[in-house]
């Protein structure tokens, strides 16, 4: 039987947890609204949605491979604009709060630094979700139109396309988390350059793996092995081969990539927690 | 103190998650390897094949990751530009970079192989060099097939190159039959002209029984198509009787039937000439066989099978090879050479 002190302690813990979520949700909502006030995000969204239909025109230049052209251009455009939005939002969020000194107002309230970062992350995640969803819908319509123009079933490979879009979102979220973590200690432009660097290196993870398994130099093997373990493997999110071959993708695979992303996000948050808590303003 | 405890826990969790992340990555990599997900990855071992000037393009493409296909598409448009400028020798290395970046770009495999086997081979300075370009085109298609074993297009292109460029009809027919087992980009069955191409290939070898069989299959697949009706009628009128004798080993009767049925309406055609030459070959009358193949080669500037058989039969019987004859890229002004060769080796004028 629980004692009165235990009940009180649990009640206090419950209240704290509820308070914590309230604080996170308040920051999430605020961040979501803030991001939509940034003109650059709207400009990127408009550009992205304008470039997507252009794939219909350019696909005529690649007779015989028109669907491939539409898929490549569509997914490439969404990824590019998603990356630009995610990296820019994440990299600018905390440095701008510091520059505008709004962070002091927020942190002077009963909001823990970790809650602040988590709220920011969720706000950006929500904005990216809406943006990628909008571009994704335009892309799927274009894909359907192209299929009809080629006398093919409009919804062929539809599930795989949805899965590809979902993994694309996770990919953007992963790089956004890295940018957000770095933003706890670094300036805006350093962070933008660093995040793109990580993206490029992450896309060369197979090369890194190849070197780590083929080199005769022990030090290089060790270094590349560490690199291979740390660098995000962005090829995990790529379903283009399946799309081109028309093969279905098992949901189990998608679940594995979700698990991979979740673990990477947790790792990044732990680093953000360690860095941000140490930071003095 | 409390913060230090938190920091320790966070560091511990960090190490734990990094280890777990590595294990998850290992599992995903295995699934991707076994489940044919790869393709996003750059086949590093093939980089050495590339010319230096294109290596940088591929490296840029590689680091662009998710945008690699877009880069491949843009480079492909550049290839098209080179083609229209007549710079086909610059186009091919760039196209190789394209398929390295995007091995599932069927059109890039197909059109590059066509440039090699057709456009570059006709500009080759010697027949040997022409043959080399055709071989390169065929190899290119075979490599494309390794990457895209389920699509019919590259099988068809390979079969077509053997059929049209080298006149290796039996090989072409076998590859066309493989193409029939594959699908197009929408997962649908390949076009029906492949059935007809198989029949055409067997006609020209000739294997009249197989040609008839495939025309009949075509009639079942597409009953309203006019081609098989005409083809079956012609084959029956001209060659079936002779073929039946040929199959029974009645070679004199086969020749008589062929000359009677075939030349009744049409004094010359490829199928008839090839059939006639095959009858002489079966009769071991090599002089007459060579003469007939020669005649076929003279009548048709694109009859590479006839030229090849002349070479093969000369080699078989230890005769010197006639000058200027090659199964690809044959120079046109060789009539006098041929006549001299005929006088010296067969004791008569060229047909």
Explain what the structure shows.
Chain A is mainly alpha-helical and 281 residues long. Chain A has eleven helices and no strands. In chain A, helix 1 crosses helix 5 and helix 3 packs antiparallel against helix 5. The mean pLDDT of chain A is 85. Chain B has 351 residues and is mainly α. Chain B is built from 17 helices and no strands. The longest helix of chain B has 33 residues. The radius of gyration of chain B is 28 Å and the shape is elongated. At the A-B interface, helix 3, helix 7, helix 8, helix 10 and helix 11 of A face helix 1, helix 2, helix 3 and helix 5 of B.
Q: Indicate the mean pLDDT of chain A.
A: 85
SSE sequence of chain A, one letter per element: HHHHHHHHHHH
Could you say what the CATH architecture of the domain at 239-345 in chain B is? Answer: Alpha Horseshoe
Shape of chain B: elongated
Q: Would you count the extended β strands of chain B for me?
A: 0
CA radius of gyration of chain A? 22 Å
Percent strand of chain A: under 5%
For the termini of chain A, the CA-CA separation is: 47 Å
Helix content of chain B: over 70%
Based on helices, strands and strand pairing, what is the structural class of chain A? mainly alpha
What would CATH call the class of the domain at 239-345 in chain B?
Answer: Mainly Alpha
Question: Topology of this protein?
Answer:
The complex is a heterodimer of chains A (281) and B (351).
Chain A: H1 4-37, H2 39-58, H3 66-99, H4 102-108, H5 113-149, H6 158-183, H7 188-203, H8 205-214, H9 218-230, H10 240-245, H11 251-278
Helix pairs in contact in A: 1-5, 2-3, 2-5, 3-5, 3-6, 3-7, 5-6, 5-11, 6-7, 6-11, 8-9
Chain B: H1 2-34, H2 52-64, H3 68-84, H4 88-101, H5 106-122, H6 127-147, H7 152-165, H8 169-180, H9 193-204, H10 208-221, H11 226-238, H12 240-247, H13 251-265, H14 270-282, H15 286-299, H16 304-317, H17 335-345
Helix pairs in contact in B: 2-3, 2-4, 3-4, 4-5, 5-6, 5-7, 6-7, 7-8, 8-9, 9-10, 10-11, 12-13, 13-14, 14-15, 15-16
């Amino acid at each position: 039987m629980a004692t009165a002190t235990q009940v009180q302690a649990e009640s206090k813990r419950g209240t704290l947890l509820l308070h914590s979520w309230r604080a996170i949700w308040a920051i999430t909502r605020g961040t979501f609204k803030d991001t939509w006030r940034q003109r650059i995000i709207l400009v990127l969204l408009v550009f992205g949605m304008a470039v997507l239909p252009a794939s219909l025109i350019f696909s005529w230049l690649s007779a015989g491979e028109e669907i491939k052209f539409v898929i490549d251009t569509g997914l490439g455009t969404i990824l590019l604009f998603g990356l630009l939005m995610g990296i820019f939002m994440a990299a600018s969020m905390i440095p701008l709060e510091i520059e505008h000194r709004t962070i002091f107002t927020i942190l002077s309230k009963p909001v823990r630094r970790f809650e602040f970062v988590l709220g920011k992350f969720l706000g950006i995640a929500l904005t990216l979700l809406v943006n990628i969803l909008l571009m994704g819908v335009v892309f799927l319509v274009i894909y359907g139109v192209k299929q009809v123009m080629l006398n093919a079933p409009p919804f062929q490979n539809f599930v795989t396309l949805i899965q590809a879009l979902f993994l694309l979102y996770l990919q953007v979220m992963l790089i956004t988390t890295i940018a957000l973590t770095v933003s706890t200690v670094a300036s805006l432009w350093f962070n933008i350059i660093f995040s793109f660097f990580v993206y490029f290196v992450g896309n060369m993870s197979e090369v890194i793996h190849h070197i780590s398994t083929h080199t005769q130099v022990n030090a290089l093997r060790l270094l590349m092995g560490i690199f291979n373990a740390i660098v995000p493997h962005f090829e995990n999110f790529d379903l283009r081969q399946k799309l081109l071959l028309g093969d279905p993708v098992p949901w189990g695979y998608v679940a594995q990539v979700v698990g991979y992303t979740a673990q990477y996000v947790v790792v990044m948050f732990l680093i953000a927690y360690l860095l941000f808590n140490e930071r003095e303003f | 103190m409390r913060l230090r405890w938190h920091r320790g826990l966070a560091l511990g969790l960090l190490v734990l998650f990094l280890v777990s992340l590595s294990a998850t990555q290992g599992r995903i990599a295995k699934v991707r390897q076994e489940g044919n997900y790869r393709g996003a990855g750059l086949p590093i071992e093939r980089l050495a094949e590339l010319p230096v000037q294109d290596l940088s393009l591929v490296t840029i493409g590689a680091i662009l990751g998710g945008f690699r296909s877009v880069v491949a598409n843009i480079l492909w448009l550049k290839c098209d530009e080179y083609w229209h400028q007549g710079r086909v020798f610059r186009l091919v290395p760039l196209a190789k970079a394209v398929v390295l970046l995007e091995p599932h770009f069927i059109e890039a495999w197909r059109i590059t192989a066509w440039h090699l086997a057709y456009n570059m081979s006709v500009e080759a300075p010697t027949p040997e060099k022409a043959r080399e370009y055709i071989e390169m085109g065929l190899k290119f298609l075979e490599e494309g097939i390794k990457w895209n074993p389920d699509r019919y297009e590259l099988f068809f292109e390979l079969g077509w190159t053997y059929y049209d460029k080298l006149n290796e009809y039996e090989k072409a027919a076998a590859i066309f039959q493989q193409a029939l087992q594959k699908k197009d980009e929408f997962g649908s069955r390949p076009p029906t002209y492949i059935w007809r191409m198989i029949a055409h290939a067997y006609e020209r070898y000739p294997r009249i029984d197989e040609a008839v069989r495939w025309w009949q299959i075509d009639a079942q697949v597409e009953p309203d198509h006019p081609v098989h009706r005409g083809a079956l009628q012609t084959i029956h009128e001209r060659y079936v009787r002779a073929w039946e004798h040929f199959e029974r080993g009645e070679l004199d009767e086969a020749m008589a039937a062929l000359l009677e049925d075939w030349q009744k309406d049409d004094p010359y055609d490829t199928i008839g000439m090839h059939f006639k030459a095959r009858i002489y070959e079966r009769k071991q009358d090599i002089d007459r066989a060579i003469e007939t193949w020669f005649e076929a080669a003279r009548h048709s500037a694109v009859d590479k099978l006839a030229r090849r058989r002349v070479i093969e039969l000369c080699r078989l019987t230890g005769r010197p090879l006639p000058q200027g004859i090659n199964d690809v890229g044959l120079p046109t002004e060789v009539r006098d050479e041929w006549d001299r060769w005929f006088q010296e080796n067969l004791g008569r004028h060229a047909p």
